């Protein structure tokens, strides 16, 4: 994952000091691209531990078309909790609950989860029902019937519904490509990229999606191409990034999928495993909401 460290150095050296929506402040650079050969190992960052369980459950949540955090909370995945909590705090029902208390209510009170756990029409909704179009099913069908098409595209950016989302999609558009030797590649365009917290997660998530789609389409994996718009290091993550830059990347882990699964919608958490992941220690950082 030297590509990641190279990008971080580049942003620190060439980025500009910018204010941002969260009032945290960033070092920002516009327009950057990385490429990962998925046959050379699974690109999960090794210069800090990344919580792969969260990567898997979030992706399965997207694939299900779900937009309520209860599925994630029930599986002890915390990555989306802050956004519905902030919305709940602004409601008349708020009773000074802490974030952990809010999450416990989501887990134990179905009516509360329905009322306050939904994020609006975010990724899963757009992937499975973009103005009536199931983009995932369409993609899978077209990969089999017209693999060399240049229209293998899924968009999460729906202008008609952006204002209804707790957080407008950062990873906005993906395009898939089948090579002549039957390898599936994916290019992701991400409009906004949190280099310390989000980017390692996004690399893993879309690389995993490429593996899953390749298996059910009878293809091998090719490259994950990652194109970033506003890629930024939050100022409260500068010390963490600098720690990572002192570390040397380790050998990439290996992804193993249950070979009997032939439908994207049949994958469960137990069907996806990672072998030989030996990262450096976890580096904590606060998410900017």
UniProtKB/TrEMBL annotation:
Name one cellular component (GO) term.
cytosol
Residues that coordinate or bind (6R)-5,10-methylene-5,6,7,8-tetrahydrofolate? 51, 194, 288
Report the catalytic activity: dUMP + (6R)-5,10-methylene-5,6,7,8-tetrahydrofolate = 7,8-dihydrofolate + dTMP
Instruction: Quote the protein name from its UniProt record.
Output: Thymidylate synthase
Q: What does this protein do?
A: Catalyzes the reductive methylation of 2'-deoxyuridine-5'-monophosphate (dUMP) to 2'-deoxythymidine-5'-monophosphate (dTMP) while utilizing 5,10-methylenetetrahydrofolate (mTHF) as the methyl donor and reductant in the reaction, yielding dihydrofolate (DHF) as a by-product. This enzymatic reaction provides an intracellular de novo source of dTMP, an essential precursor for DNA biosynthesis.
PANTHER family of this UniProt entry? THYMIDYLATE SYNTHASE, THYMIDYLATE SYNTHASE 1
- EC top class named in words: transferase
Identify the NCBIfam families for this entry: PRK01827.1-2, PRK01827.1-3, thym_sym
Record text on subunit structure and interactions: Homodimer.
For whether the record's keyword set contains Kinase, the answer is no
Q: Known EC number(s)?
A: 2.1.1.45
Thymidylate synthase/dCMP hydroxymethylase domain residues are 2-289
Q: Name one GO molecular function term.
A: thymidylate synthase activity
Protein family according to the UniProt entry:
Belongs to the thymidylate synthase family. Bacterial-type ThyA subfamily.
- Record's keyword terms, sorted: Cytoplasm, Methyltransferase, Nucleotide biosynthesis, Transferase
Q: Which residues form the active site?
A: 170 (nucleophile), 170
One biological process GO term for this chain? methylation
Q: Sorted alphabetically, which SUPFAM superfamilies does this protein's record hold? A: Thymidylate synthase/dCMP hydroxymethylase (SSF55831)
């Amino acid at each position: 994952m030297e590509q990641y460290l190279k990008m971080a150095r580049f942003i620190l050296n060439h980025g500009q000091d910018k204010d941002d929506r969260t009032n945290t402040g960033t070092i920002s650079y516009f327009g950057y691209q990385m490429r990962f050969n998925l046959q050379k190992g699974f690109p999960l960052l090794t210069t800090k531990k990344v919580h792969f369980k969260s990567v898997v459950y979030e992706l399965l949540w997207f694939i299900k078309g779900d937009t309520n955090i209860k599925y994630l909370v029930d599986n002890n995945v915390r990555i989306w909790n802050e956004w519905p909590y902030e919305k709940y705090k602004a409601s008349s029902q708020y009773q000074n609950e802490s974030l952990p208390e809010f999450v416990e209510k989501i887990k134990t009170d179905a009516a509360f989860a329905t009322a306050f756990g939904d994020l609006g029409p975010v990724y899963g909704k757009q992937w499975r029902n973009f103005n009536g179009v199931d983009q995932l099913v369409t993609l899978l069908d077209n990969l089999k019937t017209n693999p060399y098409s240049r229209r293998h595209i899924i968009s999460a950016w729906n202008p008609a519904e952006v204002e209804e989302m707790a957080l407008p999609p950062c990873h906005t558009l993906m395009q898939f490509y089948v090579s002549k030797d039957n390898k599936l590649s994916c290019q992701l365009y991400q409009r906004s990229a949190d280099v310390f917290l989000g980017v390692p997660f996004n690399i893993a998530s879309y690389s995993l999606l490429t593996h899953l789609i390749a298996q059910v389409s009878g293809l091998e994996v090719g490259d994950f191409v990652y194109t970033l718009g506003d890629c930024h290091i939050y100022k409260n993550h500068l010390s963490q990034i600098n720690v990572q830059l002192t570390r040397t990347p380790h050998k990439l882990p290996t992804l193993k999928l249950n070979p009997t699964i032939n439908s994207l919608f049949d994958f469960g958490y137990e069907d996806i495993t990672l072998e030989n992941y030996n990262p450096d220690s976890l580096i904590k950082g606060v998410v900017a909401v």
